[in-house]
Amino acid sequence: MTKMDRRSLLTGLAAAPLLLNSALGPSSSRNDSAATHRKRTLNVYLHGAVVIDARGPCLRILAPKTYQNNNAPAHIYRAGYLPNREGGLVTEGEPLVLTGFKGEPSAFSPDPTAYPCFKCPDLKGDQDYFTLVAPVPRSICPLRTISLDSAKTPFFTDTDFTNFESQNLQNLPTLLRLDYTIRHGEKPVLVGSDWQDSGLDPVIIHVRAEPGDFQCANHNAMGSIGYIVGHPNFGINSNYSKCDAPTVVEEEKGFLEICYEHLQGCDCTGNPNLHPHLPETSKPANCVGVVGHP
């Protein structure tokens, strides 16, 4: 099967997610756990700079390729939920599909007052590292927000704000969470990864497109985001380039914050002097996601 055929197949499965139970075989279609007999919440945390394509009957989350000066990847790409919340590595060019449940029945209506939104007739997907296809969520929750400064300086800079709907954004999220309702008989599956439904409520998935090395912590991914939405000069205003937002719960932490605290085998654990860029790991230029819609 060609890569394009596989991409088309996975996109189709996401648009009709309950068909996947039979496609995966008997062990997946028989959901005998207690978790399938009650309504639950699924939280999908989107860490790092991504574009959420809300133009169709399902969502596409585009994770862009971002590079260091030596053309090495500046970001890591992980998905799932391992013991330290780091997730499994995603293969470049291979799509992921979140399925096994219906999601919401109508197209998603984004809120340009809560997170950056573009009206996009088209999105450029030729530079994405991977794509996650998912059902329509009941909401997108903005987290780790940064407030406008006392001068009310806009968060973003660009020479052309055509189709940009969030010029009056009051709080800038550096983390977005997709919230889903998992209904009776449904069991979420993340095709293309090793993630498995824990049966907990809420059940949690992390998707990461963020710095994987402390030396890349101050990388700027906004150019990659701007390319996808057709705004190559899109960027964070310098007034906010060094801002960060604290976490409220453990799930909101970025990969390097987790790594610094307790990831097994990391040489940085407990020694802040080894990595002076740690305070920059949650800066907006690495962490802001945007939504494109019709």
How would you sum up this structure, described in words?
- The chain has 294 residues and is of the alpha/beta class.
- The protein has one domain.
- 14% of the residues lie in helices and 28% in strands.
- The protein contains six helices and 15 strands.
- The strands form three sheets. A seven-stranded mixed β-sheet has the order 7-15-2-3-8-6-12, with helices on one face. The protein has a six-stranded mixed β-sheet with strand order 5-4-13-1-11-9.
- β4 and β5 form a beta hairpin.
- The longest helix is centred in the first third of the chain and has 13 residues.
- It is globular.
What is the total domain count? Answer: 1
Report the major sheet.
7 strands, mixed
Q: What is the overall shape?
A: globular
The fraction of residues in strands falls at 25-35%
Concise structural overview:
The chain contains six helices and 15 strands.
Task: Write out key terms for the chains shown.
single chain, 294 residues, alpha/beta, 7-stranded mixed beta sheet, 6-stranded mixed beta sheet, 15 strands
Write the layout of secondary structure elements.
Layout: H1 3-15, H2 20-23, H3 26-29, E1 40-48, E2 51-53, E3 59-64, E4 75-80, E5 88-89, E6 96-99, E7 117-119, E8 128-134, E9 139-147, E10 156-157, E11 171-182, E12 189-191, E13 203-211, H4 222-229, E14 235-236, H5 255-262, H6 284-287, E15 290-293
Parallel strand pairs: 1-13, 2-15, 6-8, 7-15
Antiparallel strand pairs: 1-11, 2-3, 3-8, 4-5, 4-13, 6-12, 9-11, 10-14
